[in-house]
Amino acid sequence: VRGQMIDRSGAEWLEIAMRLLPIAVAAGLGAALIASSGNGQTPDNQIRPESAALVKQGEVALSAGQFQAADDALETALVIDPRNRDALHALARVAMKQKLYGQAIRFTNKALALEPNDVNALALQGDAMVQLGASARAQQNLAKVRQLCGGNSCAQATTLAAVIARGPAVAQKATTPATKQN
């Protein structure tokens, strides 16, 4: 009789454990997700210093017209710290200088995936969209930039509005009358 009691209570314990196990697993996963949700975004002031230094080096190379050197430094900055939005912004500017507007949009999309309210990325993306002829989408970016600036006119909104008003650079060259040669 005593052996049957042990088996019976063991079976009951197993049944209880099987019923509670999914609840315990769900609670554990929920706690893990809540605990790790704050780890997704790295504030700009927590970007690794090596990455920030490479961004500055890349921006110097970009301003000197050395696109390959700029690209190399900025890509390395992203390898060191993939959450460095300044590196993504600078890579988008390098792509814009090389008229690689689709690539510029991809870089700004990555920056916006890290921070959806990134005014610099929205403005750069809007500029690239204008160059590709997508002025309506650029207008949407401008509206969001203005909203994020709080109704105040910020430099990004002013610049993007001017780019939209001017239109794509390719269209400007096409409308410039050619000089006739005799």
Automatic annotation (TrEMBL):
<dbReference type="Pfam" id="PF14559">
    <property type="entry name" value="TPR_19"/>
</dbReference>
<dbReference type="InterPro" id="IPR011990">
    <property type="entry name" value="TPR-like_helical_dom_sf"/>
</dbReference>
<keyword id="KW-0802">TPR repeat</keyword>
<feature type="repeat" description="TPR">
    <location>
        <begin position="51"/>
        <end position="84"/>
    </location>
</feature>
<protein>
    <submittedName>
        <fullName>Uncharacterized protein</fullName>
    </submittedName>
</protein>
<feature type="repeat" description="TPR">
    <location>
        <begin position="85"/>
        <end position="118"/>
    </location>
</feature>
<dbReference type="InterPro" id="IPR019734">
    <property type="entry name" value="TPR_rpt"/>
</dbReference>
